[in-house]
Amino acid sequence: MMKILMNDKGKKFLIGTEDLHTEQGYIKQEEIASSSPGDVLKTHMGREFHVLEANINDYIQLMDRRCSIILPKDLGIITAYTGLGSGQQIVEAGTGAGAATIFLGNLVGENGHVFSYELREDFSQIAEKNVKGFGLENVTLKCQDVVEGIDEENVDLVFLDLPKPWEVVEQARDALKSGGYLAAYTPYIDQVKLLTRILKKRKFSDIKSVECLVREIEVKDKGVRPKTRMTGHTAYLTFGRKV
Amino acid sequence: MMKILMNDKGKKFLIGTEDLHTEQGYIKQEEIASSSPGDVLKTHMGREFHVLEANINDYIQLMDRRCSIILPKDLGIITAYTGLGSGQQIVEAGTGAGAATIFLGNLVGENGHVFSYELREDFSQIAEKNVKGFGLENVTLKCQDVVEGIDEENVDLVFLDLPKPWEVVEQARDALKSGGYLAAYTPYIDQVKLLTRILKKRKFSDIKSVECLVREIEVKDKGVRPKTRMTGHTAYLTFGRKV
Amino acid sequence: MMKILMNDKGKKFLIGTEDLHTEQGYIKQEEIASSSPGDVLKTHMGREFHVLEANINDYIQLMDRRCSIILPKDLGIITAYTGLGSGQQIVEAGTGAGAATIFLGNLVGENGHVFSYELREDFSQIAEKNVKGFGLENVTLKCQDVVEGIDEENVDLVFLDLPKPWEVVEQARDALKSGGYLAAYTPYIDQVKLLTRILKKRKFSDIKSVECLVREIEVKDKGVRPKTRMTGHTAYLTFGRKV
Amino acid sequence: MMKILMNDKGKKFLIGTEDLHTEQGYIKQEEIASSSPGDVLKTHMGREFHVLEANINDYIQLMDRRCSIILPKDLGIITAYTGLGSGQQIVEAGTGAGAATIFLGNLVGENGHVFSYELREDFSQIAEKNVKGFGLENVTLKCQDVVEGIDEENVDLVFLDLPKPWEVVEQARDALKSGGYLAAYTPYIDQVKLLTRILKKRKFSDIKSVECLVREIEVKDKGVRPKTRMTGHTAYLTFGRKV
Ligand SMILES: C[S@@+](CC[C@H](N)C(=O)[O-])C[C@H]1O[C@@H](n2cnc3c(N)ncnc32)[C@H](O)[C@@H]1O
Ligand SMILES: C[S@@+](CC[C@H](N)C(=O)[O-])C[C@H]1O[C@@H](n2cnc3c(N)ncnc32)[C@H](O)[C@@H]1O
Ligand SMILES: C[S@@+](CC[C@H](N)C(=O)[O-])C[C@H]1O[C@@H](n2cnc3c(N)ncnc32)[C@H](O)[C@@H]1O
Ligand SMILES: C[S@@+](CC[C@H](N)C(=O)[O-])C[C@H]1O[C@@H](n2cnc3c(N)ncnc32)[C@H](O)[C@@H]1O
């Protein structure tokens, strides 16, 4: 279990191995170490910080994210559309900083496994640190080009977040079990078009592409309304199923 | 593992204990029973049916759904926004036909558990059949009014899909562990408003309401375009976190 | 001025040269003829029908629409994004049944003019009837292929609703006044891409493509919520301006 | 006709009574005065500026806008849903800086008229300057509280952009001709609810509320995709029709 501190404005802080210094004062490391979720600690300036058990979103938000990461909304749609669950085997590429990796590792649990491929060694190392930091032991990071082949077999999902997912369709097909899914995250519609063509050619079934828009609602004393600004686009999600 | 048959148009069929009769001919029960995912069976009219391992979405689509069920998109957002994962403890109300129950049970796996409350005995029985049919052993169905109290403690998520979620906020608070989430699914904006007020009063943090729109993209030879019709609204999702 | 009748359920009826026969009884032609907007007429069964001055949306909804027509939302965006107003000169192609033609003719008024090109004589004739029926005298229908050339000059807007708008970019450029707009309505993203390339090549400025989603809100006693079903896509609107 | 200058990056400049000074050099007033749309002028640094005929969107973008103004998308929907056209009579409140006023004045033309009510004298004066600057002669600005009454009769549209439109429903009803529309722009869903109740009570027909989302599409060499950021909400538009 990982702890996290939250100040009275809802701002969150990861806990390291040193005293926590904030604009609202500091809290001693020993005090933090001996606290439990639900406790309230005070800074030397008397400001209250709540101790919470960190959840995965806290962690991903606060970890080292040197490359762009997938938003929760898209991870949620992938989970629901491919029927992800505890105990599944997943292949992912590329790892990036590991946001999706951690989400998927947390989801499949100790009876499941995530194998994540990444070309670049620097990203693979950041991801390593991030995955370890969250305490996951069911993740294998592979600094390999996924185009050259997928070592695993009989997996439930191959998830692709890389520029040319169509180059991996055949490898994915070989790695998937019957009924398993390929899911790809691609910002451009041109990528959707090309990938769909290859999925059809390789006889995937249930081919489908969607986009997901999440809009936040503001509930204020003056009234209720959607927020003025929203994310208009992250990427399209394309799915195919091996028959 | 549950098997499913799919014809050449992508239509899927649950497998019962009898021969499968379809418009494209029948397949004998023995033949189905001895088949494995990946096999192709032929009807007496020579039409091909693929054997697939049923996944959760196949199952929920085909099971007995006598009351309205939550769409995958909303279950996905709940999963991602509350950081759901393998091994978690979840309280749900009401069960309805059990679509959300099965999704959540599948997600938390054998180290986790779902406790689902339902007022009406008829729904609880349908849900029982559906949950059993999917083979889940980590679900406890309770034919009880959740307003009268939640028996569980220290749970990760209380998920509410019932008309007056604000009546359950205090009970949920007592049931949740520190850092755990309440999530509610409500079709009307008026419900969002009232629930938010009560969540604030009960000192929940990270209070947030969103709506999720999923739009399907058609990739045809003529070109690529979003589908003409889409689901414009299911419900708002409101989240709060116990500190 | 054109009159229209509306029953107590909000259903509307165009007035012809004969008695009006409805499921709720009939009303004599003479009675209708001598009525004024605001009057209430009764059928022989005693049901009340309101007399309204028909507006353009009533008319377009009720007229002969043998081909697919542009929705008001898209006509509204075209109007606002190109700064349409009274007195302007517009070239349109193709006419179809004339829905956009009538909208534009009504908008530019007697000091303005709409020149509308249509390949197919049958559509051109339906449009003729529809335009006349609405009483517009500022519209010229031309049964001509717009690709072969636009006769007009110095126009404010060239509006294209046909499959290959890029074939008309040069002709449109010649027809437009400096500062005038080309606007195109295309269902497929592939069309947007190709048209944009040609607009850039022909040195149009302010090139922009948008899509417009309108969602209806239901205000009921039970609460307020967006409608369950909505139109997810009609077409993309692409704009360019002649400098 | 009003002229405008545009540099090679698409940035636009209103023309005053003096030399134009920009970061790319200056252009003499006489040279500007004697230019015509379509001409290209050069700054003393040799940079090219195109002369365009200003259209209404250029003007509204560049004029003095001290209070928040309605976006074109919403003005477009109002136009299309109420069947606005040349020659109509419109009552508006409040004027604000006059963006909607100018749009509507331009639309109804010299045979139509816009009567715009504004409580605050400072806004009324800014609007006066803005309306004059655009050269409209069919607009009457009234520094009056619209709740106290509407002087006009038999108008086609009463458009309300003020916090409590329900206070004006009766006055609007008296001012409207049979078949005319009330349209209101309100950011909060609570306002929609209240207004709808009053419209029903006052026997308006065709009562409808919508929201309009416009998403821009980026067409780049790398591919086509919706923009990352978009406007998630401006306001709801509510319509009612006098029978
Ligand atoms: C956008 S990032 C992935 C981000 C990640 N999904 C997350 O949420 O944190 C894409 C990654 O794919 C990697 N990549 C690209 N092509 C690859 C290939 N052929 N094999 C393995 N990794 C690849 C890139 O180096 C990059 O780190
Ligand atoms: C819309 S259904 C739930 C559907 C379910 N989420 C699914 O996806 O299948 C709502 C259910 O809540 C139940 N319910 C309402 N109030 C309740 C209460 N106080 N305690 C337990 N169940 C309740 C109703 O009987 C109904 O079956
Ligand atoms: C979708 S319809 C237009 C509908 C119309 N905008 C409305 O709202 O009623 C397209 C029309 O364009 C016409 N068309 C296609 N190519 C053309 C061309 N090169 N010149 C003129 N008309 C053309 C077709 O015959 C068809 O009637
Ligand atoms: C948001 S602004 C209008 C902006 C305008 N629609 C535009 O697009 O530029 C609302 C205006 O309504 C005015 N107002 C509020 N209540 C009013 C009333 N009862 N009578 C007249 N004006 C009023 C305010 O002073 C304010 O200037």
TrEMBL record, chains A, B, C, D:
Residues in coiled coil: none
Matches recorded under PROSITE patterns: SAM_TRM61
Sequence ranges assigned to domain tRNA (adenine(58)-N(1))-methyltransferase catalytic subunit TRM61 C-terminal in this UniProt record: 54-222
S-adenosyl-L-methionine keyword on record: yes
EC number assigned by the record: 2.1.1.219
Residues that bind S-adenosyl-L-methionine: 118, 145, 161
GO molecular function annotations of the record: tRNA (adenine(57)-N1)/(adenine(58)-N1)-methyltransferase activity; tRNA (adenine(58)-N1)-methyltransferase activity
GO annotations of cellular component type: tRNA (m1A) methyltransferase complex
Protein's recorded name: tRNA (Adenine(57)-N(1)/adenine(58)-N(1))-methyltransferase TrmI
Database matches in InterPro entries: SAM-dependent_MTases_sf, TRM61_C, tRNA_MeTrfase_Gcd14
Gene3D superfamilies xref list: 3.10.330.20, Vaccinia Virus protein VP39
Organism for this UniProt entry: Methanobacterium formicicum
Domain of life per record: Archaea
S-adenosyl-L-methionine listed as a keyword: yes
Enzyme class, first EC level, given as a word: transferase
Keywords carried by this UniProt record: Methyltransferase, S-adenosyl-L-methionine, Transferase, tRNA processing
GO terms, biological process: tRNA methylation
